[in-house]
Amino acid sequence: MRIGHTDLDQDLIASLQEPSPAPSPLSEAHLLEHAKAIREEEAAFSSQETKAHQVSLHIYRILSVCAALLIILLMLWGVMDLPVFGKEKDPLTQVVSARYLSAGLQEGGATNLVANMILDYRAFDTLGESNVLFASACAVLLLLRKSQNQAIRPSSAVDSDSFVRDPILQFGARILFPLLLLYGLYIVFNGHLGPGGGFSGGAVMGSALILYRCAYGAEETAPFFSSRTFQAVTCSALCFYALSKAYSFFTGANGLPSFISTGTPGSILSAGLILPLNIAVGLIVCSTMYAFFCLFEKGEF
Amino acid sequence: MDLHLLLENRLAAAAIILFGIGLTTLLLNRNLIKKIIGFSFMDSAIFLFLTSEGYIGGRTAPIQLPDGSMPASAFVDPIPAGLVLTGIVVSVSVTALMLSLTVRLYQRYHTLDLDEIAQLVRKEGEK
Amino acid sequence: MIWWQNLPFFSIIGSLLSASIAFILPRKRARHFTLLILGLDVLSGLLLLHRIILLNAGPFVFQMGHFPMPWGNVIRCGVLEAFLASFFPAVMLCAVAAGQPSLEELSEKNRESLSCAIVLLLITALLAQIYSNDLFTCYVFLEIMTLTACALIVLRDSGRALMAGMRYMVLNLVGSGLFLLGIVLLYSLTGHLLMEPLHSSIQALSQAGTHHRSLTIILALMTVGLCVKSALFPFHSWVPDAYSSALPSSNAILSSLVSKGYILLLLKIYVRVFGWDLVLASRVDHLLLLFSLSGLVVGSLEALRTTHFLRMIAWSSVAQIGYIYLGLALGAGLGYRAALFHLCVHAAAKSLLFLSADMLQRVSENRDRIQCLRGAARRSPVFGLCWTIAAFSMVGLPFTGGLISKLLLGEAALSHSRIVAIISLLALALSSFLHILYFLRTVILLWSPDPETTGPVPSVRVGGTPLLACCTLAVASIALFFLADPLLQLFSLGLSQF
Questions:
Q1: In chain B, how many domains are there?
Q2: What is the pLDDT of residue C453?
């Protein structure tokens, strides 16, 4: 509340400073009226300000909408001569994908041709992608990890302890947690045989861990997943990934034979390095997702 | 202007429109959470565009049988699927970082409006 | 494959592995480990460069996997890539070494190993950008650079740093989104992601005369995306806040290396993917010319106006990025060479400016107004001399590399049409004049005796490493002048092989 230097204020101050023996109804009503008048004056003043503010806000919004329309129209005009949706593509533009589709099974060994592509042909991109997740984990740790003197805790209204020890959630989590974990592991292990892979499986496993933590609280999960666990899992999985892919790149570039065979397509132990890499990626994604949740919720594991 | 091309490529057109909306929200909206939502729109629009570019009518997902009997002409383009996968992971990582920045800023300044935060920072600096 | 042709691969993978290892190391070991890995990167780059020059070898391709281009990913290395792969890690090594004192003052010990992991990830991404031959790989490592650069800004835990980090992320994500959309559109037109096959497809498309509009839009998207990310005017709003609130080593790394990675990628796209003819035909060079010339003038004017020391250096960064983009806009041959030379000059001088500025502030009770730094150079002569050399290089005085880059830019401008030449030369002259005004004014202020110094000078215990690092960068700035001829020959050769 801003106190301006108006006459009403001076009157009010003067009337307050006068020693009054007993609060008489008249002076109380007088004070109330003064207070109301001051409030009205302030409201008039701030409404003038907000009016100018509101007008500028409106103009800003209109300009933003115009800018958006301009960008959209420009790009629509530009991309109208792209190949038509759903039609057969020009064979010249399909040189790369044709080989992935026809020779993928022999060269990569996985029946999931997309897994072949991301973990064998274009493995360098996927290596970079896992490290994007790692970089983001480092940055979030830097920002949100609880420092020694103050708790960097999101000031949300929900106190995370309010739903711990809730019997319905715990019952549901007790049933769902192993199922979710099993499903996540299935997706990871089957990534080279069908749709799936390390990223999607890791996300499911991470969500299983998050559910468990929500239901049972940090005291239960901290013993088996602490900061040390996170460091160990992330570092070893990333190192394994980088080293195995380095072996693959090195032997490929130097023309050396690689002892990793593609195995029989369709069996679980096939497709060369794709299965171990999927497991590594699954572990990285799972621990990173869980770490994000812990850091956002409490600032510590 | 070939407007019927726009209708035929309606998924790509929708993706472009979403991209434009997301881009301007990210850039011009003052609320931090809305900026993050705008970024999410923008990336989802690119994924939609990429996926629609890879689709070929009448074909199925690129999962080969173990004996390799399905011909290459039975599958859609696998490359966009891989690119979208990478893109989603990048998008998640960036969203996590932006959200943690938002949490810290809100902790400190108790507002989600970037202009107000700029004013408060300036006042802090003048002290 | 000869043994030294594996060096690019080893430096990228080595830096990547060491980032994961630095994550778990305790603080002091992480610090030494980072310096060791950066030193190894510099050595491998120098060895590679030496071999390539000695054997007069052409550019070679390293297959990342068992499949050749265009099905598998490849990295490519020529003489220019080898030079940059030794120069950039060297600048980063000096920046990290000289930034140790301020990093130690950070509140917690576990932040330091995180910051080491982040620095190593950044150098990995930078090396991958230098060597990469694939657009999508470039995008992924671009995102690593964005994330790690933001982490470097928010390393200092102040409100201003957080807000600057947020602004930085917003603009960079706009740039990434535009760039990714460009890649996606290009893929849908050509079906390729590797640069050489893309080049042949684009040539075929432009000769057939179809899709001219789409190609122009794609080129514009990629250009604007990368310009936004490297803080070219008018997308520079995060620069003054970020540089005035971050740690000195972060400032040095951000200003001298991160924006350079993006500019290098744009150069690669112009040379290897599209070709200069297409760039000319789409008039994108006019756009670059407009932005760079305005950036030159606006950056210098704002630097003149501000009274805050670090903000002045930040605004001069905006102007210097304008110089580099002017070189890019002036085109193939002379323009690109000028842009590359100024890239190196700026990398060395700007990091030296930030690092020695921090030292000068320490001996002046950490004041940040320029007026309060009167006599700082007398209190700390070595760092004052370093700052002076760096300032001279930015202005373009003789015996510093800045003079050569200004001359090269002028030469490139003169090889163009009359209007372009006149406008560019006028802008160059105006900007140089403004640079002289604010840099020399500050130098004079730093060296003039301070009548108010009473009592003992605040003793600053600075170890040998920051001193050595700053002196190395100062020597580099001067060496760029004396070694200009061989370097320019190297750049011309490298660009022809690029």
A1: 1
A2: 62
A23 lies in some domain: no
Assess whether pLDDT exceeds 90 at residue A68. Answer: no
Number of independent structural domains in chain A: 2
Domain membership of residue B89 as a residue range = 6-58+71-126
Domain CATH number, residue B21: 1.10.287.3510
**Domain contains B63:** no
The answer as to whether A181 is a domain residue is yes
Position B66 in a domain: no
Tell me whether residues C24 and A232 touch, CB distance under 8 A.
Answer: yes
Per-10-residue mean pLDDT for chain C, 498 residues long?
A: 91 96 91 94 95 90 89 92 95 91 73 91 96 95 96 90 94 95 93 93 89 90 94 90 90 92 94 90 90 92 91 93 93 88 94 92 82 84 92 91 91 89 92 91 88 60 81 92 91 88
Which pLDDT belongs to residue A29? 72
What's the sign of the alpha-carbon dihedral C443, C449, C453, C455? positive
DSSP state of C371: G
Q: Is residue A158 predicted with pLDDT exceeding 60?
A: no
pLDDT attached to residue B67: 86
Contacting B residues, span 1-60, partner chain A, CB-CB under 8 Å: 1-2, 5-6, 8-13, 16-17, 19-21, 23-24, 28-29, 52-53, 55-57
- Nearest by CB: B75 against A113, A194, A199: A113
Which two tokens mark A55?
Answer: 């007008």
Q: Which residues pair with B90 in a beta bridge?
A: none
Task: Give domain status of residue B64, yes or no.
Answer: no
Q: Chains A, C: CB contacts under 8 A, how many? A: 169
Which of A134, A227, A287 should one mutate to test binding to chain C, selecting the residue with the greatest count of C CBs within 10 A? A134
Residue A104 lies in a domain: no
Q: CB C117 to CB A138 under 8 A?
A: yes
Which domain range does residue A277 map to? 110-253+262-297
Angle, CA of C113, C114 and C120, to the nearest 5°: 90
pLDDT range class, residue A4, cuts 50, 70, 90 = very low
Q: Does some domain include residue B37?
A: yes
Partner chains of C (3+ C-beta pairs under 8 Å): A, B
The DSSP element (H or E) to which C61 belongs, if any, is: strand C60-64
Nearest 10 degrees: Cα torsion B38, B42, B48, B53: 160
pLDDT digits (tens, 9 = 90+) for A20-59: 445 455 567 777 777 777 777 766 665 666 778 788 888 8
The predicted pLDDT at position A20 comes to 46
Whether residue A244 sits in one domain with residue A284: yes
Token pair belonging to A90: 């020009």
Q: Are residues A71 and A118 in the same domain?
A: no
Comparing alpha-carbon positions, the chain A residue that sits nearest to B109 is A155
Structure-model confidence comparison of residues A28 and A144, the more confident one? A144
The pLDDT of residue A7:
56
Distance (Å) of CA A169 to CA A166, A176, A187, A294, A295? 6, 10, 25, 18, 22
Smallest CA–CA distance from A241 into chain C, residue:
C17
| C-alpha angle C218-C222-C227 in degrees, rounded to nearest 5 | 145
Kindly tell me if the per-residue pLDDT of A106 is higher than 90. no
Sign of CA dihedral C295, C297, C298, C300: positive
Residues A118 and A213 in one domain: yes
| A170 and A46 together in one domain | no
Interface test with A, best of C110, C147, C193, C224 (most A CBs within 10 A): C147
Domain boundaries, chain C: 1-131, 151-282, 283-450+463-498
Please name the residues in contact with B116: beta carbons below 8 A apart, sequence gap of 6 or more: B109
CB-CB: which of C147, C162, C181 is closest to B94? C147
pLDDT value at position A76?
86
Backbone angles phi, psi at C173, to 5 degrees: -70, -35
